[in-house]
Structure formats: C-alpha cells, structure tokens
Amino acid sequence: MQQQYEGYKDLADSLKSASALLHLERKSQLHQDIIAICNHLLNPSFRIAVFGPFNHGKSTLLNAMLGNRTLPIDLIPTTGAAITVKYGSDVRTRIMLVDGTEIYRSGTEVLQQFAILDGNRQMRKDVAFVEVFCPHPFLETGVEFLDLPGTNDRDEQDNLVREKLLSADLVIQLLDARKLMTLGERENLRDWLLDRGIKTVIFVANFINLLEPDEQKQIQNRLVFVAESFRAELPPGFSNLYRVDALPALRARLKGDVAAANSSGLAAFETALQNIVGILQPNRGSVRLPRVQAIASQTQFSLKAKIYSIAIEIKSFDDKENSKIEIKQKAANLIYKGFSTSVGELRDWLTLPKLLTKYQADAAVALAENNFKNWQINTLKKDLTQLQFAVVKWLYQAYEFFQEERPQDLLIPFPSEPQVILPSKPSNTDDLSEPGSIAVGGGIGWLLAGPVGAAVVGSISYLLNKNIQKQDDQLAKESYHQEVAKLCITAIEDYLSCFSSQGLSILNEYEQKAEKVICFEFSQEPLEITNKREHLQQLQNAFNQLLRQLEKVKIVSNHQYYQEIPKSNNTNRKYSPQPKRVQTSPEKDTGVKRQQENTAKNTGTRVESVSAPPPKASPSPRKEEVEAKFRDWELNEEIARMKAEMRSPKACRQTSPGSQTGKQQNTTQSNKAPSQPKIQTEKDKITRAYSILGLQTNASLAEVKQAYRTLVKKWHPDLFVNQPQLLKQAQEKMHLINEAYTILSDK
C-alpha cells in the first residue's frame, strides 16, 4: 500500500510540474483539473458526489441517507458551495475562508451564513471549502459525501461542479422524473463525465411519486434507456439506475417509519450503494486512474503543443543562422582557395631556380651596363608587385566579408645592390679572340672602357648558355672579360639567392598571419533563444517524466519519449578553412640556408648549375595566365553573390520551417531553362543569347555557365595581343559573349 501511495505521489508531482511549466492560468480548466485530480489521487477516503441540476433534491437525498436535516434544504437553489460530509463523533461544521481564516461551529446552522446562495443567487467568493462532520456508520468506513451546487444555474457554479467531479470515486446523478433530460444535462454526461474517465456513475430518479401511475411506467422506460446508453462501469450484477423519492424518504427517516422508507426506494438504493462501495473502495486506484489518464492525456497534448511551438521557433532561428554560417564557410573556403593559389604562385616565383632562369641573364647584363637599379624597378619590382597584390587582395576580400583582423601589407624588400670587385687587368686586355667575346648591342660596360666592356656583356650570355663541364680544359681557359662576366653572374646569383631566401621566409610568416584574417567567429546566441532551449528541454523532460510515472501505475500511453536535446555550444567559436600547419624542423631550415650559402661561395658550381635562359618572352600572355585570370574572376563573382545573399532575407527564408518545397522549386528552376518572357522583343533577345553561346533554348543555367567558360578561354583578347586582325575580332566576340551571359544569368 505504501509503495502504491508513493507511485501516486510521484505521478501527482509530475502532473503539477507539467502544469507549472505550461504556465497555465490559475483559473484555466486544465490547471484546475490537474490540481483536483492530484489531490484526489492522494485522498485516502472514498468520495461519493451527488450531482445534478438545481432543485433536483440533491441535499434532500443526502439528508435522507444521513437520517436528519444536516444540509440546507429550500425550494430555491440553496447550496452555494461544495460541502464535504465526513465522519465525526458529533455534528459540527468547519469552514475555511480564502484568506486562511478557519471557522469551527457545532451543528450546521453556520451553513446558512457561508454555504448557501445569497439574495442575488451568487456563491460567496471568500469561501475556500466547507466540511460537515456527522456520526454515521457508513461514513465511519472511510466514505465521504460531496454535496455539489446545482448546475444549469450559473457558470460559476457549473465550473465548480465540473472541477469537483474529478475528485469523486462514485457519482450519483440525480434526475427529475417529471421532465426529460435537457440538452445541457446530456452534454454534461459526455463532457464532464465520460470524456474525463468518470464512468462509475449511478442514476437516481427523483419525483416519480408525483406522476400518475400510467406516466410512471412510461418515464421508467425512458430512464432505463438513458442509464443503459451511458455504459457505466460498476461491479457486475448492479444496476446503474434507482428510484428514490427523496422528500418522502427523508420524512420517513425522521419519523422512523421503516415501511415508508422502503416504499420510497431509499432502503434498496442504500443497500446497493453500500455493496458497490464495498467492492470499489479497496481498489480505489482502478476507479481513479482512468480519470488520471484522461487529464494526463490532456496535459501531454498541451506539452506537445508547447514543445512543438518552441521547437519551431528554435528551428527557424537555427536555420537562419546555419544559412548564414554556410554562406560564410563557402566564402571562407573560396577566399582561402584564391589566397592559397596566389601564395603558391608567388612562392613558386620566389624559388631560386625560377628566379635564376627568368632574371639572371638580364640582371647580370644590367649590372655590367651600370643599369641594375632601373632593371630592378622596371622588371623585378614590377613582377613582384603584381604577385604581392594578387596575394593581399584575397585578405582584403576576407576582411570586407568577415570583419575580423585587418590584414597587413605584404612587404618583401630587395637586398642591397650587388657589388663586383674587379680582378687585376692582364697586359693583353685588348685580346678579343677567345670564344664568347661577342659584343652585345654595342654597349659600353661601366667596368671597362671600349670594346672590352662590350665583350664582358657578351661573355655573360655566353657563360650562361654553355656547359663548362663538357669543355676541354684548354677551351675553358678564361680571358679577363670572361672573368669579369663571371663575377657579374655570381653577384646576381648571390643577390637573387638572398632575395629568394628572405622573400620565402617573409611569405611563410605572412601566410600564418592570414589565418587570423580568413576566418569568422560564430555569433553568440541571443539569450532569448538560449532560454527557449532550456525551456524546451524542461518541457521534454517533464513530458518524459510524466510518461514514466504513468507506466509505473500501469497506464498505457501511445506517446513516445523525447530524445535528449544536445546542449548548444553557446561559446564563441571560430571557423578557419586553413589546415593545421606542420612546423618545419630547424635542421631542415639550416640545411637549406647552408646549401644556399655554399652555392653563393662556389662560383664554378654556380655557373654550371644555371640552365639556359628561356627564349625572349613574347608580349602575348600564356594560356595558363588567361586561365588564372578567369579563375580569379569566377571566385570574385561567387563571393560577390554570397555577399548579396548575406544581405538578403531570402537566404534565411529558404531554410525556415516549411521551406522544403521552396528549396525543391529553386533546385528545379536552376536545372531548367529560364521562363519564357511575355514580351516578344525580350524573347528574341534571349533566343539570340542562347545562339551566341551555342546552346539550345532549353539549356540549363549550369550549361549556360559552362558554355561561357569555354568561350571566354577561347576568345579572351589577351590571347591575341600580337595578332591585330584577330584581336579586334576577339574583342567583338567577347562583347557579344558577355552580353549573352548577362542576359541569361539575370533570367
């Protein structure tokens, strides 16, 4: 018994907790039902409620059963409060007021002051509850009677009755045999009793004695139909319909007239009532749990509705945030891709072999011609500036998009201008007969005057284009101007080696600093959403707890448990597309530097390792350069599109609840040709655009983009800078291609 009580107590606590989380109004029906059923669940007494419309004789019937005029009786509706009748050694009354005041009186006269309707037929609002104690043997068995106000009179009374019915183990529904049940009474049977699991109901027909004998039989048949249609759940063998003439029964009891009490139907009803209670009372749980199940089910539905509502709000917020984060992640990845490519191109350009191949010959000649400074500014610096700008622009793209750390400029300084110390002049300085002594453009060297200076310049070209290892020792004998040329070549290699080493080191550091620029911080979740998440978790926990408690008392539920919500990480986090860097070991760095230093010291090895310079570069760009330009253009266009999405609420709407259809429509539209315009001129313009791109009019947008890429790579004007005839044609063609692409992409 104690274990069962604990189970009921836990169930009641779960229901009350759910009610508190739902923030139900105190006067709401569900809140009152929850409080009523929870109190009843823990009530050890077996409660019998007498229920019916006003002036049906409820109090009269109770007084007849108790054997005296305990309760107020009048011809007008008198009971203005729910009066609980309990066992007591003597008749006394206890009244509890709303303000906590308790009134104890002997007898029941005080009921005339606190428990009947006033002159305006209103219940007193200051009365919390009324109890009457009576020394009756039936009450001594743990039974309580509940005399309820009459229904169909005032809404206030109906609400009180509806609430109190949940706290009754057995309901006595009083019927007036003189008239058929009203529509309100029939609705009450369904709404107040059946729908709330109250099926232990006994119908008592009053006032049959006031009818003519012929009418009594007819009314009896109608009452049997009403009782049978209710399908009461009483112990087997007991009827749910009895006839009691309440007022004659009370008079018979007061006079002690047993025969009259029997003829009024009171004795038969009392006997049946005591037997029914004797069977139901030991197992009150089987009576109460269906009512608990009905109220718990309403509570669960309210919880689910609240959970769904909050979950939708949170999902809407999450979808919007995820949409923004997804756009930012794509942008970060694209920017990092462009940045990495540009860094790779600059790093490749800075490698010593590439620098030597591209610049050593021209730089050595410029050095020999005393024109190194101009060469450095007009050639090396120009190329470096272009590559540096290609790197830095991506970081400014990132800063504009994410507003994280402002990027620094990439500054790679040039080493000091190379210096050459001339060897002593041999006596035959005018001898120009050795191989490689070729004048270059008639230039006069700053190192030597006259034709010997020109021979130095010529020797530079010769030394960089021959393989000394394959020369005979005699042929390798160097003249003075070859010695000087070799010194120029060595000085330039030292210069480029220093420039390469320093530039790569600065670029590595700069690339690491970029990690703080190409990233974004996940925004802090608003406190309102965090609170909603917590409330949602509390509601789901309350729902699951209620479900568990119902299972413990063997109440079956069709609901499923909610899964625990993963806790939201509401701390600031950063997203960075850069992979983790592996630190280069100092040994490797030292080895590379040592190798460069050895190379700088060993002139012979340095000259031998230099490969032949490439042929004179044409002003026309290579195809890979056009490819790189187009790649950058694509990335820039994609980032610009994402910026527009970030500013537009459309991106948020696409991921909001119920937008799946919209997504599917967008996907479908992106794979279909743009819709045909209504205006004929626009239709012709679009048809011509498809034709320019070499596409059918039903081509998808993806096909439009692919055709555009192909044509740009074929007709880019940069490819025809040395072909004036084709250049003009390419420019015209590109104008048409761009115009066509704009028309179709806008569609």
Give a nutshell description of this structure:
The protein has helices at 2-21, 29-41, 58-66, 111-114, 137-140, 155-165, 183-193, 213-230, 246-255, 258-263, 266-280, 284-350, 352-368, 372-402, 451-465, 480-513, 527-552, 586-601, 603-609, 623-647, 650-653, 660-670, 680-692, 701-715, 724-746, and strands spanning 46-51, 83-87, 92-97, 102-106, 127-134, 143-147, 170-176, 201-206, 241-243, 520-521, 574-575. With 747 residues, the protein is an alpha/beta fold.
Please characterize this protein's 3D structure.
The structure is a single chain. By secondary structure, this protein is α/β, with parallel strands linked by helices. The chain has 25 helices and 11 strands. The protein has a 9-stranded mixed beta sheet, with helices on both faces. Strands 10-11 form a two-stranded antiparallel ribbon. Strand 8, helix 8 and strand 9 form a beta-alpha-beta unit. Helix 13 packs across helix 16 and helix 23 packs across helix 25.
